[in-house]
Amino acid sequence: MGSSPSSGFFHYRNVLIVLNVFYLIVALILIGAPAAAIASAKFTSVPIVAGVIASGVFLFLVAVLGLVGAAKHHQVALFFYMILLGIVFIILFAVSVAAVAVTSSQQQTLAAKAWNASSLKTQKEIQTLFNCCGFKKSDTSPNRKSCLDLKCCTSTVGALKSNSTEKPSNISTNSPTTPSHGAATIHPPQYCLSCPGCFDKLEKEIHKAFKVGGGVGLFFSFTELIGLILTIYYRNRKDPSANPNAFL
């Protein structure tokens, strides 16, 4: 026994409502997660936190627009919802494909640009969180002075001081000192060359983040495509409870 036109109308409406409730939950997570990170003092970078929260707010507004349009079969709300959902789908799909297809060398280049563009405060937070120093271990920039309080720096320097048969003054603050007779090099504390670089330590995690992030983005983009197609069908259907002589 075939389904009636009215059952198809309510089917499309219910699916759209469920889909937009799902978007609302994701939006609330995007808004709440940065707040939790700030509260725990794990990460307080204002630009990154603001960007994630802004994305969550935008998705929240789009989801509310979709819920209103689906629940009331509001033609104007559904029209703008279709436009916004189509734009988000194109952007998210393009970014997700790029994230999945990016090579390891491109990942390092992008990570280096992001590191250089970040503030010293953000860099220190990353270094403290992951116990690493600088972008690469070969980096000997003056910014490595911010690594002095890291465990990987203080423990190694202390061990070098206690194990060295020479006076502590041999640990220079200006340039590396190489003891004679093939002894190991004692690096100046401000360089903390015993600490791994943050990219060296997080390279596998960054690679995984690109792939997982791209995969999740593709999943969300296809849910948006499904939502867009459902909205088009739903918008062009007649509401069984409305005046049959009213214009669709």
List the helices and strands and how they pair.
Layout: H1 5-39, H2 46-72, H3 75-101, H4 104-117, H5 120-130, H6 151-163, H7 198-235
Short summary of the structure?
It is built from seven helices and no strands. By secondary structure, it is mostly helical.
Explain this structure to me?
The protein has 248 residues and is mainly alpha-helical. It has two domains: 5-102 and 203-235, no CATH class; 108-163 and 172-198, no CATH class. It has helices spanning 5-39, 46-72, 75-101, 104-117, 120-130, 151-163, 198-235. Helix 1 (5-39) runs antiparallel to helix 2 and helix 4 packs across helix 7 (198-235). The longest helix is centred in the C-terminal third of the chain and has 38 residues, at 198-235. Mean pLDDT is 75; it is low at 157-190.
The secondary structure category is mainly alpha
The best one-word shape is: elongated
H-E order: HHHHHHH
As a whole number of angstroms, the C-alpha radius of gyration is: 27 Å
Strand content: under 5%
| Number of helices, where a helix is a run of at least 4 consecutive DSSP H or I residues | 7
Low-confidence region ranges: 157-190
Number of strands: 0
Reported for the largest beta sheet, the result is:
none
Mean pLDDT: 75
Tell me roughly what share of residues is in helical segments: 55-70%
State the end-to-end CA separation: 27 Å
Number of domains: 2
